[in-house]
Amino acid sequence: MKWTQFLIPTSKECPADAVVPSHQLMIRAGLVRQVAAGSYSYLPLGFRSLRKVEAIVREEMNRAGAIELNMPALHPIEWWEQTGRVEAMGDVLLSLAGTGDDWRSRTVLGPTHEEVVTEIARAYINSYKQLPVSLYQIQTKFRGEARPKSGVLRTREFLMKDAYSFHSELDGAGGLGETYQTMYDAYCAIFSRCNLPYVPVEAESGPIGGDASHEFMVPTDAGEDYLVQSEDGSYAANLERADVQPITEKSAESQAPVKEVHTPGLATIDEVSDFLKCKPRQMIKTIIYEVNGEPLVALVRGDHEVNESKLARTAGVSFVTPAESPLIKKLTGAEVGFAGPVGLNARVIVDQAVTLMQGAVTGTNKTDYHVTGVNPGRDFEIKETGDIRMAVEGDCAPNGSPLVFKKCIEVGHVFKLGTKYSDAMQATFLDNNGKAKSLIMGCYGIGLNRIMAAAIEAHHDESGICWPMTIAPFHVVICALDMRVEAVSTLAEKLHDELTEAGVDVLLDDRDARPGFKFKDAELIGFPIRITVGKRGLEEGIVEIQIRQTGDTVKTAPENAVATVQKMVQDAM
Ligand code: ATP
Ligand code: MG
């Protein structure tokens, strides 16, 4: 392929809103072009990389025994109503704007395909003899992301590989557990091949439900999630899921009685702690949630945050929602901001750290008042307790090793779904006793565009991208320093043809431009190998081969260049 025949709009400029390196570099290297917030065109170079990621994903899915199919983006909303996910997805679920009984008003754009694939299974899988089976597709997803950002890391339209497995059993040969492990291993293989520094973590299952899930995280400042790892490397979880070792440090003993203090208009932890000259950690935060119309109260230390997933798990409910002010006012008899556990008549879950507090400050269910001197256990009963808070710096993992926090981006996610979707959609099979049972399911998603951008986050320097060989748009660029010199152009074209013949992806920079200009572009785009063919080199009888990642160069006789480069490419793959 010749540069002058391609479309490679490199540029020095990048939009002001491009703050993360992958976003800046993908625009500057001419890989993508923004169409609208959260939607991008893949220009020829970017598309080549995306296709390479796709090929790796497809190969590993096939190796894992999954079967490819393709499902549409247009879904009947009825199926989403059957699984109760119209509410759970909220604004993420995009629907076509139609009026009345126009078909558009009953059609949504698929953000994921559990419903569609479960309907297929319901129609065609009738017997345990057809199980297990794993189906996958590589297809465009649509999501009404509120804040698309960071280039292609978070968009409203993106390419996902989604796989779904169906089983008659949870465990044992052919069970969900086995396929889950196979998929987990396939994901590790995919990320290794794309040269991503990934970390698998335990994760919350979110609205997709189910009882076990892992996310694959790539540490990067461009990420919006937090990865929590123990210093000893034995524990990793995402922040939403991270368990902490119980705190043992008790507050100083206090015999002081409970005392009401006037705190006019002061409703937040910061305002009250400032006013009363106490530390947030000496306060008890009283957060009211709603579960099926009833209040559920969570108590955490003032410097801690409630973890809603942990709270729901401790309470034994599937999810909790923050209560609206009417419910709060009805329960406390006060304005929002003055709730407290003393004398509160509701189900209360007390975080473990709160059970060690003495002489605490908290709300008193009376507008404009707080109380001091509160001792949990003495001044209110501790009926239910557990770990219901977010991990923070300074916490330890359950095994006692200190926790370290890193920003990261999720590139893949595997879930054990169980029978959530098959129950909701009555997708059953007959077991070996002829008894109808719900299909047991797993699902496994990977974002292809995100892999590409995460690879750039992990592999770039001040001059540009340093593509891993496996997903580089071209393995090699040949910089022909003066195409008008016949010896140069003849050799450059010969190398191009022979490398292509040898199965190497090579781009010949045949532009009539200065060497410095060509080198800058080659570094910006980040081809793993650059071959420089110039008049001076030829006079010495050499061409120069440079490795983008290390900057190392070797000089070689032109007749050895093809074999040398071919070996470099093979070794890197
Ligand atoms: P996030 O928490 O980042 O919003 P998610 O948990 O909603 O992601 P899943 O439903 O698990 O994502 O989707 C599977 C994979 O699809 C993710 O691991 C990610 O690689 C990719 N993905 C999800 N949302 C986006 C998006 N808006 N843009 C690009 N890729 C995405
Ligand atoms: Mg996810």
Written description of the protein model:
The chain has 573 residues and is of the alpha+beta class. It has three domains: 19-197 and 425-456, BirA Bifunctional Protein, domain 2; 259-386, YbaK protein; 474-572, Anticodon-binding domain (Rossmann fold, 3-Layer(aba) Sandwich). The chain has 15 helices and 31 strands. Strands 3, 7, 8, 9, 10, 11, 12, 21 and 24 form a nine-stranded mixed beta sheet that branches. Helix 1 (21-28) packs across helix 11 and helix 12 packs parallel to helix 15. Magnesium ion is lined by residues 215, 410, 413.
> What is the fourth-level CATH superfamily of the largest domain?
Bira Bifunctional Protein, Domain 2
- Roughly what fraction of the amino acids lie in strands? 25-35%
Number of domains: 3
The tally of beta strands, per DSSP, is 31
Major sheet, described briefly? 9 strands, mixed
General form? globular
Supply the helix-strand structural class. Answer: alpha+beta
Radius of gyration: 29 Å
- CATH C-level class of the largest domain: Alpha Beta
Helix share of residues? 25-40%
Q: Give the low-confidence spans.
A: none
> Mean of the pLDDT scores?
93
Please give the alpha-carbon distance between the first and last residues: 21 Å
Any idea of the CATH topology of the largest domain?
Answer: BirA Bifunctional Protein, domain 2
Could you tell me which ligands this complex binds, including any ions or cofactors? Answer: adenosine-5'-triphosphate, magnesium ion
Architecture of the largest domain in CATH? 2-Layer Sandwich
Task: Count helical runs.
Answer: 15
